[in-house]
Design goal:
By secondary structure, this protein is α/β, with parallel strands linked by helices. Helices cover 47% and strands 13% of the residues. The longest helix has 18 residues. One of its GO terms (molecular function) is hydrolase activity.
C-alpha cells in the first residue's frame, strides 16, 4: 500500500483498536501507530503504541501533534484523511 501511494512509513500513522494486529503490525512495517483503546484494556508487555487514545477526539489531538512534526510536503498527503477524521468527531 505504501508503494502504491508513493509514501514513506514515516509519512503514515495507523489507527486501530487491536494492540496486536493494528499497533504491532504497523510498527513492524515502520509505521507509527495510534491504539484506539475505547474499552480501557490493559496494555500487554512488549508492545508500546506511539499514542494511546480513548476516543476520536484524542485521535484528532494526536493528528495535530503528528502534523506539526512532519514536513509541509507530507502534510499535503494527509490533509484529506484528517478532514475525514474531523468530520467523524463533530
Amino acid at each position: 500500500m505504501l508503494r502504491r501511494f508513493n509514501l514513506d512509513p514515516t509519512e503514515v500513522i495507523h489507527i486501530g483498536d487491536s494492540i496486536i494486529s493494528d499497533v504491532s503490525g504497523a510498527q513492524n512495517a515502520g509505521i507509527r501507530a495510534i491504539w484506539l483503546n475505547r474499552l480501557n484494556k490493559t496494555k500487554p508487555e512488549g508492545i508500546t503504541p506511539d499514542y494511546i487514545c480513548k476516543d476520536l477526539f484524542e485521535v484528532r489531538e494526536c493528528f495535530e501533534q503528528f502534523i506539526t512534526r512532519i514536513s509541509k510536503a507530507v502534510f499535503v498527503k494527509i490533509v484529506v484523511f484528517k478532514k475525514i477524521v474531523l468530520k467523524m468527531v463533530k
